[in-house]
C-alpha cells in the first residue's frame, strides 16, 4: 500500500507554445499572427501552433491541410530545432541555479523538486514566480507553472492559468481539487480511456474515487491501480534528474507519397544517418530496430527486429531497416518513414533523495 509523500514541493514548468513563441520572438513580423510550425497547406503534420492559431482549433499533430481549412490565414514556418535546443539549454541552466533535481520531459517542459533548494527559499510558489521571471528576462519567452506535492498534480496545475501564469495546490487542497476534476483533465487518461470510464459512469475524480481497487484493476489492469492512487493524491514518483531514454529515433514526412521501395531506400539512408548522429552524441546503442511506416491514408504500421548484440552505427541500422522494409508488401503509398532503436544499453539508476518538510 502506497502512502502519500506530502512533504515534497514539485514545480512543473511548461513553456507557452514554445516553438511558435520562439519564431514570433525571433521574427517580430510574425507576432500576433496565427502561426504553425511544421507542415504546410499541401501536406505534413504541425509540430506546434501559436495561441492565435489555437483560437481556430489548430493543434499540434494536426495535418497542415486540416489546419488551413480551420484557419485560412494560417502562416506556416519550417521548424528550427537547433534554435529551440539552444534556448532550451539556456532555460535549463536557470533551473539548475535553483535545484539539481531537474527532470526534463522535452525541450519545453520539466519537473523541479525544490523541497530543498539552492536559494534556501521555503516557498515553492515564490520560487516558481522567480524562475518564470528569470526565463522571460533572459529569453523573452513566457512560461507557466504548476506547484504541488507531487508530479501528477503539478502537471495538471501548470495548465490552469496558461499562458504566462501559475497555480499552486497546497497539500490540504489536493483531495478536493482532484475529486471535482473532470476525468478528461487527468494527466495520462486519454480519449479512449475516458470513453471507457464514461461507460461505467465515471465522469469526475469523485466518481473514480468511489470505485474499488479491485474494480479498477479488473477493468483497466495495472493502469487501474495507478488511477486508484492518483485520485487520492498519491503519486510517489520522484523527480529523476538522470531520466533514461527508452528509445531514440528519427523520421521524415515526404513532400510526395512514395510507392516504390527503391525510392524509400534513399530516404532510409538519410534517416539512418540522422539517427546515427543522435546515438553517437549520447553514446547510446540498442538491440531492437523498429521501422515506422505511415501510409497515404494515414494508417500506421511498425515492423521490429531484435538483434543478439547492441548496435549504433548507420550501416547496421540501415541494413536492418531495409530488411524490415522488404519484410512484407506495402499496403499503400507511403508518406512517412521512421527508424527507432530501443532495448538500449542505458542503465536505470535509482537515486535516494532525503526530503524535509517545509510550509508551502
Provide a descriptive summary of the structure in words.
This protein is an alpha+beta fold and 360 residues long. Helix content is 37%, strand content 22%. It has twelve helices and twelve strands. It has helices at residues 18-26, 51-54, 64-70, 81-96, 124-139, 151-157, 174-180, 191-199, 205-209, 213-230, 261-282, 314-325, and strands at residues 10-15, 35-37, 48-49, 75-77, 102-106, 109-113, 143-148, 166-168, 247-258, 286-295, 300-311, 334-344. The strands form three sheets. Strands 5-6-1-7-8 form a five-stranded mixed beta sheet. It has a four-stranded antiparallel beta sheet with strand order 9-12-10-11. The protein has a three-stranded mixed beta sheet with strand order 3-2-4. Helix 4 (81-96) crosses helix 5 (124-139). The longest helix has 22 residues, at 261-282. The chain is globular. It starts with 9 loop residues before the first strand and ends in a 16-residue tail after the last strand. Mean pLDDT is 90; it is low at 347-360.
**Residue fraction in strands:** 15-25%
Describe the biggest sheet?
5 strands, mixed
**Average pLDDT, to the nearest integer?**
90
The Cα radius of gyration reads 22 Å
In whole angstroms, the N-to-C terminal distance is 26 Å
Helix content: 25-40%
Discrete helix count: 12
What's the count of strands? 12
| pLDDT < 50 runs, ≥5 residues | 347-360
Shape: globular
Look at the helices and sheets and give the structural class: alpha+beta
Amino acid at each position: 500500500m502506497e502512502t502519500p509523500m506530502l512533504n515534497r514541493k514539485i514545480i512543473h514548468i511548461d513553456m507557452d507554445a514554445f516553438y511558435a513563441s520562439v519564431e514570433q520572438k525571433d521574427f517580430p513580423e510574425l507576432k500576433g499572427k496565427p502561426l504553425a510550425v511544421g507542415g504546410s497547406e499541401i501536406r505534413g503534420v504541425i509540430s506546434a501552433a501559436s495561441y492565435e492559431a489555437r483560437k481556430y482549433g489548430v493543434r499540434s499533430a494536426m495535418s497542415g491541410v486540416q489546419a488551413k481549412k480551420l484557419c485560412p490565414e494560417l502562416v506556416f514556418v519550417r521548424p528550427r530545432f537547433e534554435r529551440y535546443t539552444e534556448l532550451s539549454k539556456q532555460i535549463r541552466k536557470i533551473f539548475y541555479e535553483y535545484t539539481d533535481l531537474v527532470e526534463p520531459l522535452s525541450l519545453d517542459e520539466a519537473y523541479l523538486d525544490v523541497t530543498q533548494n539552492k536559494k534556501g527559499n521555503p516557498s515553492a510558489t515564490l520560487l516558481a514566480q522567480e524562475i518564470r521571471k528569470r526565463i522571460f528576462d533572459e529569453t523573452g519567452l513566457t512560461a507557466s507553472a504548476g506547484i504541488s506535492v507531487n508530479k501528477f498534480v503539478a502537471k495538471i496545475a501548470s495548465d490552469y492559468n496558461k499562458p504566462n501564469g501559475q497555480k499552486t495546490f497546497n497539500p490540504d487542497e489536493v483531495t478536493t481539487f482532484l475529486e471535482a476534476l473532470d476525468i478528461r483533465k487527468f494527466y495520462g487518461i486519454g480519449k479512449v480511456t475516458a470513453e471507457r470510464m464514461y461507460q461505467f459512469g465515471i465522469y469526475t475524480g469523485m466518481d473514480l474515487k468511489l470505485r474499488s481497487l479491485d474494480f479498477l484493476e479488473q477493468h483497466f489492469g495495472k493502469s487501474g491501480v495507478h488511477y486508484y492512487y492518483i485520485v487520492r493524491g498519491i503519486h510517489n514518483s520522484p523527480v529523476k534528474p538522470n531520466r533514461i531514454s527508452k528509445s531514440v529515433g528519427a523520421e521524415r514526412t515526404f513532400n510526395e507519397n512514395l510507392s516504390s521501395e527503391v525510392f524509400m531506400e534513399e530516404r532510409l539512408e538519410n534517416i539512418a544517418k540522422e539517427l546515427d548522429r543522435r546515438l553517437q552524441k549520447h553514446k547510446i546503442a540498442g538491440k531492437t530496430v523498429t521501422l515506422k511506416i505511415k501510409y497515404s491514408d494515414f494508417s500506421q504500421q511498425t515492423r521490429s527486429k531484435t538483434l543478439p548484440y547492441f548496435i549504433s552505427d548507420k550501416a547496421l541500422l540501415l541494413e536492418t531497416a531495409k530488411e524490415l522494409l522488404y519484410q512484407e508488401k506495402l499496403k499503400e503509398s507511403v508518406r512517412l518513414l521512421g527508424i527507432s532503436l530501443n532495448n538500449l544499453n542505458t542503465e536505470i539508476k535509482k537515486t535516494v533523495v532525503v526530503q524535509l518538510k517545509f510550509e508551502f
